[in-house]
Amino acid sequence: MSIPSCERRLRRGFTLIELLVVIAIIAVLIGLLLPAVQKVREAANRMTCTNSLKQIALALHNHHDSKGVFPPGGMQTGQNGTPCYTTWTIEILPYLELDNLFRLYNQSVFNHDLVNKVVNQTRVKSFECPSDTLIGQMERPATGPQIYEYMHGSYRAVSGRSGAIGRAFWDTFEAQFWPPSFVMDQSWRGAIHGTAAAYNGIPAQTALGQRGASVSQMGGPEKMANILDGTSNTLFVGECTFLDVTRRATFWSYTYASYNQSSITTESRILTNSYNKCIAMPGQGGEHPCKRAFGSNHTNGTNFAFADGSVRYVTNSIDIYMLAGMSTIAAGEMVSPP
């Protein structure tokens, strides 16, 4: 029996042209949907970063409530290039509900000592931003005691404002770059900076650097009362990552120099996630301000926690002198955050 022609027509499949049209429509829809999905994902990442910075700021405040001071940015022993002891991220671990990890850290030895390797190679999600492509990765930092690899992180303390010729910073001791008297400008120190005072059983450091200047001038951890510029106007912690020279990026527990502290140099080139881009641009101090950059993988800006516990998004177009003013605790600048 023959099949009626109408039934044969009902069984006809798609033609090649119709199939291509459907595929094209699907491709267009995916093209339209993908940017929207990426925007939603990035918004979620920024929110996570904001929440992490709020947790960090709260932990810093809880440390202050418990100890009477904020933690040291990093305990120095002498001239830049010498070993260091503990650092601010280690000190706030108990206030991030990570007391067990804190207890594994040996305060009596240098940060890079082998007994501290387990801590230094542990991922701490509170110190990670999901937009940071380096989270969960370990590398040997570009400089300092390169004994083993350290775990990357996403956030650096604001140690203060840089000094003359783009070289004098509050994360380490280089008195020779603080002319004319080789004394660090106290008004340019940040809320969390390098220190040399006694802390956690480690005695005060008095070693002499170049020109006979003593590391003791770095002082000790800061009190809330020392933030004379106002807590809502003072930077605490910000994001820093690099897409290219990753060994110069942030290592959350590495005390040495600028790897978990940064200073604000009055050059907008430091607001970037590209180390090579920064050093390619003209500026005082060559690559040294770039080592202390602040930048993220977010769009055109970076999250910063302020000393009052708030978190704000700072665009890369901000007046760099305003940002430098907000990096100090007692310089008396009349600035307001964006």
How many distinct beta strands?
Answer: 10
Query: Ranges with pLDDT <50 over ≥5 residues?
Result: none
How do the strands line up in the largest sheet? 8-5-7-9-10
Estimated helix fraction: 25-40%
- The number of helical runs is 8
**What's the SSE pattern?**
HHEEHHHEEEEEEHHEEH
What value does the average pLDDT take?
A: 90
What do you see in this structure?
The chain is an alpha+beta fold and 338 residues long. Helices cover 26% and strands 12% of the residues. The chain is built from eight helices and ten strands. The chain has helices at residues 5-10, 16-67, 88-91, 99-104, 117-120, 275-280, 288-291, 320-326; strands spanning 74-76, 84-87, 138-139, 150-151, 155-161, 194-195, 235-239, 261-264, 301-306, 311-315. The strands form three sheets. The protein has a five-stranded mixed beta sheet with strand order 8-5-7-9-10. A three-stranded mixed beta sheet has the order 2-1-6. The longest helix is centred in the N-terminal third of the chain and has 52 residues, at 16-67. It is globular.
Which structural traits does this protein have?
338 residues; alpha+beta; five-stranded mixed β-sheet; 8 helices
What is shown here, in short?
By secondary structure, the chain is an alpha+beta fold. The chain is built from 8 helices and 10 strands.
Chart the SSEs and their pairings.
Elements: H1 5-10, H2 16-67, E1 74-76, E2 84-87, H3 88-91, H4 99-104, H5 117-120, E3 138-139, E4 150-151, E5 155-161, E6 194-195, E7 235-239, E8 261-264, H6 275-280, H7 288-291, E9 301-306, E10 311-315, H8 320-326
Parallel strand pairs: 1-6, 5-8
Antiparallel strand pairs: 1-2, 3-4, 5-7, 7-9, 9-10
